[in-house]
Amino acid sequence: MADFKELDPLLHSQLRLAIMSLLMSVESAEFVYIKEKTGATAGNLSVQLDKLATAGYIGVSKEFKGKKPLTTCSITKRGIEAFEKYVESLKTYFKN
């Protein structure tokens, strides 16, 4: 029987994994863009971004663009390492 590596429970959520995958491919992304790409509700996305930020996997910057709030997210070095480890662990499930 193969040795399966434990999957990071924080990244094993469909929405959090989608957010991390998206942020791996861009320098940063605005909240609205992430919301559109993931199909998440604003409330759920906010909760999941907060969980990822608390873990140190992403950075969240909040500012104003004119009078509108602008939230921008980017993946951190720790987040990149966690994502890459998750992908490598996932691969152990596909080996014979």
Automatic annotation (TrEMBL):
Residues 15-93 form the Winged helix DNA-binding domain. It comes from Fulvivirga lutea. Pfam families: HTH_34. It comes from the Bacteria. This is Transcriptional regulator. Transmembrane segments: none annotated.
